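Hello support,

Our group uses your service weekly, and this is the first time we've seen a run hang past the timeout. The protein is Molybdopterin-synthase adenylyltransferase. I'm not sure whether the cause is the sequence or the server load. Input pasted verbatim:
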Amino acid sequence: MGLVLGLAAVLWGLGALMKVSTRARWGMIAALYVGVLAVQVAMPPAHPLRAALGGTPQGWAALGVAVAVVLAYRAGLGALRRRARRPAPEPSQPGTFRPAELDRYARHIVLREIGGPGQKRLKQARVLVIGAGGLGSPALLYLGAAGVGNLGVIDDDIVSNSNLQRQVIHTDARIGMPKVFSAAEAIAAQNPFVTLRPYNRRLDEQTARALFAEHDLILDGSDNFETRYLVNRVAAELGKPLVAAAMSQWEGQISLYDPARGTPCYACVFPQAPAPGLAPSCAEAGVLGPLPGVMGAMMALEAVKALTGAGEGLRGRMLIYDALQGETRIIALKRRPGCAVCGGGSA
Ligand SMILES: [Zn+2]
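Update from on-call engineer: The timeout came from a worker crash unrelated to the input. Re-ran successfully.
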C-alpha cells in the first residue's frame, strides 16, 4: 500500500514539475490504480509484486468504488450549480420593471399614448390567443415582444411542413411538435420576461368558459366557423372583448367585438355560418403567406390599444384589407336587433 502511495506521490510531483495539467495528473494516478488492480486480480496471491503492493483485490476494488462514488457526486453537484447559475430571468413582480425590461420597452415608454403606465398595463394583462396558426403566429410573437406579460394559447394541431409558408412562429426543426409547445419555445426565446401557457387541446364550450374567465382579452385566430361562433358566444357571455380576424386568399378582415360595451358581436355581423363549400378553408382556397402576417400583427396592435386605451380601436368597425389590389377600407358595423348571442342591444 505504501509503495503505491509513494508512486502516486512521485507521479503527482513529476507532473507538477513538468507543468502537466491537474486533469492529466489525475489521469496518471487513475492509470496507476488500474495497473495495481490488474496485478491484484491476475497474479497469484503469493507473487512478490502483489505482496509488495499490499492489500487485497477486494480492498483495492472497494477503494475504486468509493472514489468513483465521490467523483459522481461532485459531478452531479457541479451540474446542479451550473444550472442554478444560468441566468433564468424569472418574470419580475407584477407592476415593477427590471432595468433590462425598461431598456427593452424603451420605444414603447417614449410613446405618449403608452408610456410607463401603458407598459405596466401590458405587463399585467392576460391575453388568450385561439389558434397558433397563420394569425396566431404573428399575433403571439408581437404580443410577447411588446411585453404582454401573461399569454395563453390553445390549439390541438401539430406543426406540419405546409404550415411553414405563413405560420412564422414555428420552425422546420419543430415539424411534428404540438403547435402550442412550438409557440411556447419561440416566445421563451423571444422574451424571457413574459409567460405563455400552452393548452394543447381543442376548444370546447367548457374549456372556453374556464379559460376566457382567466383572461382580459381574447384573440380569435381560429380557422373554422364552429370555433368562431363558440368563441363569440362565450366571450359575449363573460363580457370579454374579442379581437377577431379572418382571411382567405388575398383578403383579410379584422374587428373588435365587445357587446358588453355597446359594440356589435360577431354574430350580429355574421348571423349564420356560410353553407359548407361556400367559404372554403385556407387549405382548399389558398392564402398568401404574408397576409396572415399583416392581419395577425394587426390583431396584436389592436390588443395593445385595447389594453392601454391608446387611440381608436376597431370597436364597431371592420377593417378590410384587399392585398391583391393594395386597398384598405373600413365599414361601420351595427348591432343586429334580436341577435341570438348579444340581444342586439335591446336587452
Ligand atoms: Zn350580437
